[in-house]
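Notebook, student rotation project (T.W.).
Task set for the rotation: take a protein with a known small-molecule partner, predict the structure of the complex, and write up what can be learned from the model alone. Partner molecule chosen: fe (ii) ion. Sequence and SMILES entered below by T.W., checked by me.
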Amino acid sequence: MVLRIRKSLLRKGMYIEAVECADLEFSGRRFLLETDSALHSILASSAEYVLINRAKSNVDCGLPVCRQPDEHVQPTSLRESDQRTRIQHAVSQVTATLRDGFDEIKSGKFDIDRFAPAAMNITASLIASPHVLVEVTRLKTKDEGTYIHSLAVSGLMTGLGHLSDLGEETTRELTIAGLLHDLGKLLIPNAILNKSGQLTEAERHVMRTHPERGYLRLKQHPEVSDLILEICRFHHEALDGSGYPLGLRADRLSLPVRICTVCDVFDALTSVRPYKRAWTSTEALKWMFDRGHLFDRRLVLRLGSLIN
Ligand SMILES: [Fe+2]
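Predicted structure of the complex:
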């Protein structure tokens, strides 16, 4: 079991899975905390939280360390095959719901409550089985690419929401936002959306309108929260202002938006595209970590702890 604790609660004998800071000293390192100097290095870092592996620790990490149940990146007693079955069941249910939901949106009808049960379903499944998350992303097929991408991003965002202490309500919004973030692609011509080769400059310009199109479409429905609208509109922005549609900089990009960006890019990199192989999770995380001017490194680290 992996636990997320404040660094002030660290003790020698604990096994470190990740130190949540951008310091290269701790990048990708997993180790048994054995010396005072290692402990002091972590305490002196910019990290607030540390992920520890209870099973690999030499000391009793103790449940009192965990302030809330959702701080656990669980999974304990379920057998691998049971976990796989649960995930596959959740995937088929959510995929069907997404398909129906998108059809309704296309025809002008929309009921966000349809998404809530699917969101709760995937949330429960993923909390129980975070380490098979990567398999969910591998269930993607080319024909259902957007649907399954949305599902995968939703699942990853749900996991990061829990790990980031955002609370049940906000995390539930993240789950729904993940399902809806690429809604604007429904309004992009198929000739561009499904083109197998590289896009021309003009086609790329059209494709880049999808965040704004999705935002404007969802905005027509008052039951869609401001947070979901914000995530849909800004999920392709970058910390240094080089993203789109508005070129916002870091100080205008909220944690939930950054969470969506990191999950979206991670899923894109680890998926097969007509022009590239799927990257491994490690390759994708390293590529993103090395681009701290674009992505929030704290979240890249947190994502790594979620899926590895
Ligand atoms: Fe997108």
